[in-house]
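hey m, so remember when u said the tokens were messed up on ur end? i reran from scratch. heres the input so u can diff it against urs
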Amino acid sequence: IKPEQYIKRVQITPTIDGKISFEGILNKSATNQQKIEIRIFEPSGNEILSDRKITEVKENIFYLNEEISNPQLWSFDQPNLYRAEIKFGESTIIETFGFRTIQAKNNKLFLNGKPFYLIAALDQDFYPESIYTTPSEAYLRDEMLKAKKLGLNMLRCHIKVPDPLYLKVADEVGLLV
């Protein structure tokens, strides 16, 4: 059961220079007594930003821009992910995000400004026991770690949009999708 007022969605947009923008949608506007609080944790779990309170909400949408110094960048070998906890009344959303850029220029791909060669495989996203339903997070993690051991840095999904759990695990193990 959801509380009377809750967070419907949050979009987090980080840049590799440490800037983070938050845009969130609430089911109802906050009153002066209800605050939206944001806390950010670095990949090691240490809290780096706390007590960021948003008191102004316009038409059920809130915005916040923050900055941290020396962000740990996400990469294939070190998939550093930060965690944000956004609280509104009794509603809490936890989202993870990584600081990274992917660019294509001069016929090359770049991750965080460094060139890389894309080594990918097609993933049919078909599971013998459950057909198209993801079996479990552990199953996905095992499959993706095997893909990394083969030297892959990307899995290309076939025909359908992957389950959000698929994207979460890929982010955690250091694979592009």
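this time it looks ok to me. DSSP finds two helices and twelve strands in the chain. if urs says something different then somethings off w ur setup not the seq
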